[in-house]
Each structure stands twice: as C-alpha cells, then as structure tokens.
Design a protein that fits this description.
single chain; mainly alpha; Arp2/3 complex 21 kDa subunit ARPC3; two-stranded antiparallel sheet; 2 strands
C-alpha cells in the first residue's frame, strides 16, 4: 500500500502536468538556428528533473512527447507528430528523457533541496548525454559528418545551456527553500 495520500498523489500529477506544459511553452520561446532551434525547453526539462526527481521528471517529459505525438503543436516552431519526433531534432527530444532523469538524481533522498554542486554535476551529465544523442541522431538523419553534426547541434548551444542550467538550479533552490516545490 502506498504511503501517499490521495491529495499528495494529485499534487504530484499536477506538477507533472505543469512541467510538461512549461516544456511546451519553452518550445515557443525559440530562436531558429540552423537545423536545431535555440529554445527554453532545456531549462524546463532540467527544472522538471530537479523538482520532481528522476522518475516523475522523466514522466513529465514523456507526457510532453506524447502530447506532440498525438498532434498537439508543442514542439519547436509549433510542430507536432511522429515525423517531427523522428526527424533531425528527434534525438534531442528523446534526450530530454535522459536529461530529466539525470537532473532528478541531484535530489537528495527525502529532500526537495538541490545543491549547486550536485545540480551542476547531474544536470551537466544529462546535458552532455542529450547533446551526444542529438548529434548522433542529427548525423544519421541528415547524413552529415561527425564534426559538422557536433558543430551544428551542440557547439552553438553550450553557452546558453550553461545559463539554463544555472537558472534551473536557482529556480529549484528558490522553490525548495520556500517549500513550494513538490516533496
């Protein structure tokens, strides 16, 4: 039997839906740059992991991906559908699952607190894996060389990802200190 009350279960579901909605909103806050747009999705994926933990953070990303798969215009540029999910940027979309899971590992057991060091380490590892998956997927999708795939899909976005990592940790810490984050 679960130790959670029905109200805390509902609270968790609301946070999952909220984070999925923020990921969709982050997709609309984008700047087209070559094959891969610059957006705020990554910050919200990190925040989902930090606030919800590894499993619920990944579930929030899964909900976001499912919304796009069924045709809701939640991907960058208002796109949706299986073709976009499996298209050149699909590796990043699937990489969001890994990113949220690893960012969620920064949470201490039984605590909503995120430390700067743990947040940066786990979030940075998640970003690295997301970029690797995205670059491999882009290379295979567009039949380009490794160097070009990395230059197009990762290098221009690294400074922005560092900023988004910092902002996500700061938001998670702010919400945690004010006991507004889910426990």
């Amino acid at each position: 039997m679960s130790s959670e009350s029905p109200l805390s279960s509902l609270h968790g579901l609301v946070w999952i839906a909220l984070m999925a909605a923020l990921m969709a909103a982050g997709a609309y806050m984008s700047i087209p740059v070559a094959a891969v747009p610059f957006s705020l999705q990554t910050m919200f994926v990190l925040l989902a992991g930090y606030l919800l933990g590894p499993v619920r953070g990944a579930v929030a990303v899964g909900l976001y991906l499912a919304a796009g798969l069924i045709g809701l215009p939640v991907f960058s540029g208002g796109r949706s559908g299986l073709a976009h999910l499996l298209g050149p940027t699909g590796g990043f979309l699937f990489g969001f699952l890994v990113l949220a899971y690893l960012a969620g590992m920064a949470r201490q057991k039984g605590s909503a607190a995120i430390g700067w060091g743990r947040g940066a380490a786990f979030g940075g590892a998640g970003l690295a894996l997301m970029y690797c998956l995205g670059a491999v997927w882009l290379k295979l999708s567009l039949d380009m060389g490794w160097a070009k795939a990395v230059m197009v899909s990762a290098v221009p976005f690294l400074p922005g990802s560092g900023l988004k990592l910092f902002l996500a940790i700061a938001c998670a810490r702010y919400l945690g200190k004010r006991m507004l984050a889910p426990s």
